[in-house]
Amino acid sequence: MHCPTHECHHTIPQGGGLSWLFPFKDGAPPVGWEDAGAYLILPALLVLSQWASQKIISPPVNKDDPAQQQTQAILAFLPVLIGACLWVGGVEVKCLGHEHHTCFSHIFL
To answer: Against a cut of 0.85, is the pTM above it?
Structure first.
């Protein structure tokens, strides 16, 4: 089985899933930190982008309303959840583009 990146020279165990990332061998993923980092940068960028656009687009929160505070707490967790669920690079690129388009169009309008 080949690595998730195109220039990877490692072989990873059969089994699919996260076998290219776990279990660590000698303190590093089976594919090495460089290739793992190159593949994991998109989920990190997606989480940061969603968090930033949420902060920019969200209206001010009324500190006296517990329902609004609870809603904001749930919404703050959503970027992490979405970033953890999307491991397919093409989908993440689309989501990043959509996040930037939505945020910039909201600011512009």
So the answer is: no
Q: What is the pLDDT along the chain (109 residues), one digit of tens a residue?
A: 445 555 555 555 566 677 777 888 888 888 889 888 888 888 888 888 888 888 888 888 888 999 988 888 888 888 888 777 766 657 777 888 888 888 888 888 7
Residue 76, H or E segment: helix 66-85
CA distance 29 to 12: 10
What is each CA distance from 103 to 13, 51, 93, in whole angstroms? Answer: 41, 11, 15
**Domain extents in the chain:** 1-58+65-109
